[in-house]
Structures are given as structure tokens and as C-alpha cells.
């Protein structure tokens, strides 16, 4: 996309701030001075400074001039709120995912739970019982099995989001739930605001639906800057906010309730629909099950809609393909879209899940998963930091089962080098449209900590030691 003169000038000054040419809280040239330095018109200078001020790079001090923000270091650590009028992710993602999903490799790259942590025996028994139900050979309820929706409604109410069974649509996994939700409130050409980094599969959905994208970076202390969010909303007027507030994949970040409340209020104020990916919400490490952001949203019949999307893929089995959308004011739109693609959901699988849930083992199973994933995350972090001589920077997750890791090496090249020792990682370039995440990668800890896995991780971690200290190399 061709940049205007003032947009390009703003980018040039941003780069100068990022490089340290202008320091934190330092006064920058006046409008007249920058007009002379950059050989531009006064109007161009004014518009460029407006952008820089909106995006938090500079502030104006009365009767003194323009200054670099005092906390600029936190702003320049993430993607720079880029706008993308097209998303072209599918081919790039597919090429990398072919390696990540290679069955010959130990898959630290795909966020798929190991069978070790899935209730395989109990699910087998549940399937056997499901086959005794005569109704599994007929079409089921178009909105999904009523008893399953009642169970989901009751469970949502337990963590602070009270809904009825009529406000739930069963889907074939969380990705389908997100897709239907976006289709219910957008048209091609609409703009969606998404945090960065975020789950790679969302870019394929956004590309297919021909939606424009604004990236807003996660900030380490607050998840998302509410001030930054409002500025972007005013500037780009997005139709939808698409996000994961509970243990985002890949960085495992949890928004505080205060941040959730403020983002919900702002979204409602500006008429922005919410689509929340809550697939990791049950896998918290501390405290109690966090509320979804949509539970803080003021719902009205004629106001913006909210959609809470999840599935059993990360807790029971990815192969079940059992997901759902919970929405207080949009179920009719979602159900109408679902019926356009299929006459009913997978009836036998829904009955199987119900048979499993009847045994009341789900909460006990979740307690086991939370304990195991917390321990595995801690052990893997310690192993990687120790054997890399501390040369890896790992974001400590609040939940889930993946680690987000920064290194001095390019993630795409690391993918190829890891393959040489029989393991796959997910390079950071998958998780954003900008190039900011090229020196990051994601690891799945649910593969466990066997002696073989530890050996692979140690060999991989040694790659990040300084040359003189390496014990092993690829």
C-alpha cells in the first residue's frame, strides 16, 4: 500500500526514535524545524506529528514543544500498530506448518496436547456407551444437543458469565466457532483489531473473509494498553475486536479484570463487536478460573454483539472437533450461518462427550492438567535457561501449555536447524503480520519430559550458548 507523505514522515521519525536517535523524554525538532530538515510542507509535518502523538510516540508540552514519551521503551518493544488492508497468510503458514506437523519429528511446534494428558480410556468407554443411543443415527438439534448446551450454560455461569442453553451454538471446534462469529458481524473490507502476537490460525480466517487488520501489541504489565486501544479505535474504526484475554496463544498472557472491564466498556462505547477465543481459559496455573472479557460487556438487544468461542480440543481431545459459541445477542446470526454449511452437528460425538461429562470427571481431569502443565512449563523454562547460559528470554505464562521465547537467532532458520535434530518448533513469524516476531519461537511443553525429550531440548538449548561455551552443536 502506497504511503502518503505525512505517513512516511511519521514512519521515518518512529524509526529514529526506535534506533535511539531521539531518547526518552528528549525534545524533538519543532514543526518548522522538521519542515526544514525533511524538506516537507508544514501541513505534512503537522499530520505526521498528529500520528506520532496519537500512537503515543510523542507528547506536546505547552509553550515548550514536542517530546519523546517518557515510557517509550515499552511502546517500541512490540509491533507498531500497523494497519493491513489485505492479509496474505495462507501459503506462508502452510509451508511452515508442513514442517511443524511432520510426524517424524517431536512436535514442540504444534499446540496440540500429548495423548499422555488426554483421558483416552474414559473417552473410549464414553464412545461405547454413545453407540447404544438410537438417536445417534438421526440428525440432531440444529443448534447442537440440548443437554450438552445445558451443561455448557451451567458451566459458563460458574465462572461469571450467565447464559441459557438457547444462547449457545455447537460447532466443529473453536476455529469454526470464531469463523461463524466473524461472519455474523462483518462483511469483506471491514476492519478487525487483533493483539499481536496471536494464534496463527486466525490470520487464515481473516484472509478468507477478506477483512482488514490492525495489530495492537501486548504490553507485559497490562496485556493491552487501554489508551493505545482507544487511539487505534478512533483512527481505524474497527468493526470487531478479536482476541484471547485468558492465556493468549502463544505468550500465555492473562488480562487483569480491570483491563477486561475497561476494554469491554470502550468496545461497547464505540460499537465494536467482540469475538473472544477462550480455548485455554480452563488451563490456569493459579487462583480460580478467570472470567472471559465478554462477561464485562454491557449487552443490549440493539447494541454491539459479543461471542465467546471455545472447545474441548485442548482439554479432552483435538480429534473430537467439539466446540461452541456462547452469545447473548447473536445466536440467531451464528446458527443461520451454521445451517448454511450443514444440517446438524456431529451427533455421535456430542453424545460421547455427554457420556464422559456424566461421570463428573471433567473438573478432576482439569485439575490434573493444570498441575501437570504448570510443572512442565517451569521445568522446561529452567532447562532451556540453564543450557542456553541464560541467552533465551522466556515469557512466563499464566496458563496453557506453550512457551513464548525470544532469542538472538532468526526463528525461521531455527525451525530448519531444529529439524536436523528431530524436533519441530513454531517460528515467531507465524504469530503476527509484522516482522517483529522473527526472533521469537513457540514451544509446546505438553510433549512431556522423558529422557529423550530432555536430550532434544538440551541439544537445542546449547545452540544459544556463546561459541566458546557450547558443549554440543547441531
TrEMBL record:
Keywords: Aminotransferase, DNA-binding, Pyridoxal phosphate, Transcription, Transcription regulation, Transferase. GO terms for biological process: alpha-amino acid metabolic process. It comes from Leptospira ellinghausenii. Its cofactor is pyridoxal 5'-phosphate. One of its GO terms (molecular function) is DNA-binding transcription factor activity. PANTHER family: AMINOTRANSFERASE, GNTR FAMILY TRANSCRIPTIONAL REGULATORY PROTEIN. Pfam families: Aminotran_1_2 (PF00155), GntR (PF00392). This is HTH-type transcriptional regulator NorG. The keyword DNA-binding applies. It comes from the Bacteria. Residues 3-71 form the HTH gntR-type domain. SUPFAM superfamilies: PLP-dependent transferases, Winged helix' DNA-binding domain.
Amino acid at each position: 500500500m502506497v504511503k502518503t507523505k505525512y505517513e512516511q514522515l511519521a514512519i521515518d521519525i518512529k524509526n529514529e526514535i526506535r534506533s535511539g536517535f531521539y531518547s526518552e523524554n528528549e525534545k524533538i525538532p519543532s514543526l518548522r524545524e522538521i519542515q526544514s530538515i525533511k524538506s516537507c510542507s508544514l501541513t505534512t509535518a503537522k499530520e505526521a506529528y498528529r500520528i506520532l502523538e496519537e500512537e503515543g510516540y510523542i507528547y506536546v508540552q505547552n509553550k515548550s514543544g514536542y517530546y519523546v514519551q517518557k515510557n517509550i521503551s515499552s511502546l517500541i518493544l512490540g509491533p507498531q500498530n500497523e494497519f493491513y488492508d489485505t492479509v496474505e497468510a495462507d501459503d506462508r503458514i502452510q509451508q511452515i506448518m508442513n514442517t511443524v506437523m511432520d510426524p517424524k519429528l517431536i512436535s514442540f511446534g504444534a499446540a496440540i496436547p500429548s495423548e499422555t494428558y488426554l483421558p483416552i480410556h474414559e473417552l473410549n468407554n464414553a464412545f461405547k456407551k454413545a453407540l447404544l443411543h438410537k438417536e445417534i443415527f438421526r440428525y440432531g438439534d440444529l443448534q447442537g444437543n440440548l443437554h450438552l448446551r445445558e451443561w455448557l450454560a451451567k458451566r459458563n455461569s460458574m465462572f461469571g458469565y450467565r447464559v441459557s442453553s438457547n444462547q449457545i451454538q455447537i460447532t466443529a471446534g473453536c476455529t469454526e466457532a470464531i469463523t461463524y462469529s466473524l461472519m455474523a458481524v462483518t462483511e469483506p473490507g471491514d476492519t478487525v483489531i487483533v493483539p499481536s502476537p496471536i494464534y496463527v490460525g486466525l490470520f487464515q480466517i481473516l484472509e478468507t473473509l477478506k477483512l482488514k487488520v490492525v495489530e495492537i501489541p501486548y504490553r507485559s504489565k497490562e496485556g493491552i494498553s487501554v489508551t493505545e486501544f482507544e487511539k487505534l479505535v478512533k483512527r481505524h474504526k474497527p468493526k470487531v475486536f478479536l482476541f484471547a484475554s485468558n492465556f493468549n496463544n502463544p505468550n500465555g498472557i492473562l488480562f487483569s479484570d480491570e483491563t477486561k472491564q475497561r476494554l469491554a466498556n470502550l468496545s461497547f462505547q464505540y460499537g465494536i463487536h467482540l469475538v473472544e477465543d477462550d480455548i485455554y481459559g480452563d488451563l490456569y496455573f493459579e487462583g480460580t478460573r478467570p472470567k472471559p472479557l465478554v462477561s464485562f460487556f454491557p449487552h443490549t438487544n440493539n447494541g454491539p454483539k459479543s461471542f465467546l468461542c471455545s472447545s474441548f480440543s485442548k482439554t479432552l481431545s483435538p480429534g473430537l472437533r467439539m466446540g461452541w459459541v456462547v452469545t447473548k445477542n447473536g445466536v440467531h446470526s451464528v446458527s443461520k450461518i451454521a445451517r448454511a454449511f450443514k444440517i446438524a452437528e456431529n451427533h455421535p460425538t456430542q453424545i460421547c462427550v455427554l457420556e464422559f461429562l456424566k461421570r463428573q470427571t471433567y473438573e478432576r481431569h482439569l485439575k490434573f492438567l493444570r498441575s501437570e502443565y504448570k510443572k512442565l512449563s517451569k521445568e522446561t523454562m529452567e532447562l532451556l535457561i540453564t543450557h542456553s547460559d541464560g541467552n533465551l528470554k522466556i515469557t512466563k505464562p499464566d496458563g496453557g501449555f506453550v512457551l513464548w521465547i525470544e532469542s538472538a537467532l532468526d526463528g525461521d532458520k531455527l525451525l530448519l536447524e531444529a529439524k536436523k535434530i528431530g524436533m519441530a518448533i513454531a517460528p515467531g513469524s507465524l504469530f503476527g503480520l509484522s516482522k517483529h516476531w522473527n526472533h521469537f519461537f513457540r514451544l509446546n511443553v505438553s510433549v512431556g519430559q522423558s529422557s529423550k525429550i530432555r536430550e532434544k531440548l538440551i541439544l537445542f538449548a546449547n545452540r544459544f550458548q556463546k561459541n566458546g561455551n557450547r558443549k554440543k552443536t547441531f
